[in-house]
Amino acid sequence: MKTTILIFVLLLSLNLASCSKQDTTIDDKIKTETNVENITTNTASIQEDNTVQPDRKMDIYWKITWIEWNEVTLLQVDTSKDPTFNMTPTEKKKYMQSMDEATRTALKEEINNATLWEIKLTVPVWIPMIKKEEQGPDAPTLEASLADLKVWQYISVWLNIEVIDRKVAEFVKIAFTQ
Questions:
Q1: What is the overall mean pLDDT for the chain?
Q2: Contact 139/95 with Cβ under 8 angstroms?
Q3: Res. 122: pLDDT tops 90
Q4: Which residues contact 73 (CB under 8 A, 6 or more apart)?
Q5: Which of 13, 35, 82, 123 has a CA between 20 and 30 Å from the CA of residue 137?
Q6: Which residues pair with 61 in a beta bridge?
Q7: Cα 64 from Cα 20, distance rounded (Å)
Q8: Residues 61-69: what's their mean pLDDT?
Q9: Mean of the pLDDT values across residues 123-142?
C-alpha cells in the first residue's frame, strides 16, 4: 500500500513538473515570437528611413581619392563652379532637365576639374546611404552601403552636426558613375 501511494505521488509530481515546464515553454515561445515581430517591425521602419534624404542642403560634394575601412579621403570640389549647388533638389532637377545632354556633360566636366583640397571623413557603417544606378535627374535611387563607395566617385555628404571635432557623415548620396 505504501509503495502504491509512493508511486502515485512520484507520478503526480512528474506530471506537475512536466506541465509547468510546458507552460513555461509556451510562455517563452509567445514572448520570443512577440520579440521577433517587434524586431522585424523596427527593422522595417529603419530600412524605410534609410532611403530618406535629409531635408537640409548637403554639407559637401566631394570626390573620393582614398578609402580605408570606413575612413574616406575626399578631394573637395569647388562648388562655386556648380550653378546648381545652392538649389533645392526640386530646383536642381528642373534646371538639369532644361539642359541638353551636351550642356549637362560640359557642366559636369567643369565641376570635375574644379577641386580645392583633401580631407578625411568617417562614414559610419549604420548610416543611411543611397546611390543612383542610372544617369539623369529622374533616375531612381537605391539603398547603398560602404561597399558601393569607389575611388574617383563623387558623393554628397550630410555631416553629423553633433560631432564637432572631426568630420563624420550622417547621410551619403553616391553619384552615378559609368
A1: 77
A2: no
A3: yes
A4: 64, 65, 66, 67, 118, 119, 120, 121
A5: 123
A6: 156
A7: 61
A8: 91
A9: 87
Q: Are 149 and 74 in contact (CB under 8 A)?
A: no
Residue 144 has pLDDT above 70, yes or no: yes
**For residue 153, which of 75, 69, 86, 53 has the smallest C-alpha distance?**
75
Say yes or no to pLDDT of 21 above 50: no
Spatial CB neighbours of 3, under 8 Å, sequence gap ≥ 6 = none
